[in-house]
Amino acid sequence: MVSTLDSYNSTPTAIQKPKIFYGWYLVTVDLLAQVNCAFHMSSTLSVFLKPLTEDLAVSRGLFSMLRSGEILLAGALAPLIGPLVDRYGGRWLMAGGALSAGIGFVLLSQASAFWQFLLVRWVFVAIGGVLMCQMVVSVTISRWFVRKRGRAIAIASLGQGSAKVLIPIVTATLFVWVGWRSTWAIFGLLTLVLVVIPAAVFMRRSPEEMGLMPDGADAPAQSGAVVERKRATEAARRGAQDEVVWSRREIIGTRTFWIICFMYGMANVGIAGLNLHVFAYVTDIGFSAMVAATTLTIIASTQLGSTLIWGFISERIEIRHSSTMMFLIQALGLALTIASASWSLGTVYAKRHPTQASPYMGAAFQMIVGGTAVALVGTVLGEWASWHLSSRGIGAIAYLVIFGSILGYSAYSYALRHASATIVGTYAYVNPVIAVVLGWLLLHEPVGARTFVAMGLILVAVIWIQFSLKARRTDNASTVRRSDSPTVRPEPEAST
To answer: pTM to 2 decimals?
Structure first.
């Protein structure tokens, strides 16, 4: 035994490097866990909202509190789960969480009252999700990767993103085939099979306990020289020299920690509330369940496409800068959504609540208020210094005043009084086509074949909307006429 150790310490033989770094197996397990984490998220629960509220006789507002309670419960458990991940690793936490969530999904299929559904969600599903989802995944990957940490976390997150793309359509299809109760049971069985066993078999706490280095870097030669081992370890951890180990008490005492909690918490709450009601809203306004599921899929597809991009960005710039960029883009998107939604809501409200005021007076009032607001913003930004009139500029302003404002607002108000809001709303698609055509005809701006094809598709879509609405009105009118027409019963024949 002694000779064996002596030869081991004296012989400078290097450890054979595996072809595939073991950390990537953990990323695969984490990806599967993220797929199953999507089963209990708001976008999935959104598909269940209408049938659950109808079968369990509960209002949508009370049902929304269920998801709010889950988010609060996850936040309260996070400080307790974190030390367990640090001390014991994510192996049995992930396996136990998946076991709890899987059992919870199966029990949901047997709930006959809302309090039973809520209890199972909070006790089994929510707690199981905390144990097997983001926290355990991120901490585990962070131990196995340093230089490639961003892409590793991004690849694991693709599991949740991909599931959010597919689950709405799959769930809507399962509703038709087996109903919502059996759909929950299927989710539970998938969780038990795809996460519990792989987590128990493959998950490991850190690469050091397997004799490996983070990122799959070459291990040092086993010569027993402590100095060489330390040098190789430091070389394997390139890019991590600026990382500082903080205690929990030190982190809680910093203002940065609470700012981060507030920012990510507000972002997640807003997104969760939106995703929870999208499916029900789309079906409420008259579209089918498959159209609503497709809407959720489109929303999730945009999130999926950005996951890897942000992963690579976070490896190249500081995380605070990449987070700032992400929130700025999100804020811009929300601002554009609110602006367009405000105009749409105002249009629908004006259509359903007509006033006795002249439409031309309404258009004039809108232009005065809008022009004043824009002038105030320009003044604050100091844009008056760049104000220089020219003959070309005066012509452009005159065109915008006459055609873009006076005629445009007046025509919009008139159309809103004599056509449906859906028909009037197609102006947003037609206006860009007119602008491009005018620029091509009057200013000789270059327009390619691709642009003409795009304009043709827009016009076809607008015409399609027009004819579909007319066909729907015709069908409704014929249905009303059939229901209002008297039923003529044949006279009984006289018996002889």
So the answer is: 0.62
